[in-house]
Amino acid sequence: MSRIIFPEWTQTLRKWVALLALGAPVYLVTLLWMVTQQPETLRIGYQPTQPVPYSHALHAGELGMDCRYCHSTVERGAKAAIPPAATCMNCHTTVHPDRDSLLPVRKAFGENEPLRWVRVHDLPDYVYFNHSAHVTRGIGCASCHGRIDHMIKVTQVAPLTMGWCVDCHRNPEPNLRDPKKVTDMGYKPSPGEGARIRQELNINPPTDCSTCHR
User: What does each C-alpha distance from 117 to 23, 50, 83, 156 come to in angstroms?
Assistant: First the structure.
């Protein structure tokens, strides 16, 4: 039986194939890291069009409405709550009652149906987040949502990644303020306030997996 002799160039090819095979895990991790750090992947800048052109810059900014008027469960529940059309009509029965852009609000109110808002800050189903656990301990709305009082259309400004959350849990003091001031968008904590609030409220956020993954 004759012996099969491969061309010499195949020896070089074999070395490159072996090198690629050994480095595949590194290449894969690098690729995944690059992809997951893109703003498009993190949803930074995500700004969907809503069924009603609701301006937080007008309501929360210019008019000074408190976040809790619409997001009424934020201090006692996991979810911040989306207001029913009836909440909107508390004002818009008399304010711009015939404006065309508010027709979906009037229709939802008349039919006792919810408005179909598009979620902006949408965490994966395997992540548990409790709003009340944060705002009642002095984490301001702006820490996660940005200057919502400047937004005509709500935009996601923070990555909301696991690393981003864990960094705050490890060092919450820069984001802590007097719990009575959590909805003050332009609030600037005084020097040492975060450390004081942390000590007074005994804030030591857990960093184990079961905190958010249940």
Answer: 46, 6, 10, 15
The residues of the chain scoring below 70 in pLDDT are 1-11, 13, 15, 18-20, 23-42
* Calculated CA dihedral for residues 127, 76, 138, 123, nearest 10 degrees: 20
Q: Six-digit token pair at 165?
A: 């959350």
Long-range contacts of 107-112 (CB under 8 A, 24+ apart): 108/84, 109/85
Q: Write out pLDDT tens, residues 64-81.
A: 999 999 999 999 999 999
Report how far residue 66's alpha carbon sits from residue 132's, in angstroms, rounded to the nearest whole number: 16
* Separation CA 154–CA 141 (nearest Å): 13
Closest CA to 197 of 173, 213, 181: 173
Residue type, 64: G
Domain ranges of the chain: 10-42, 56-82+118-211, 84-116
Nearest to 134 by CA among 187, 77, 66, 194: 77
Summarize pLDDT for 43-59 with one digit per residue, the tens: 899 999 999 999 999 99
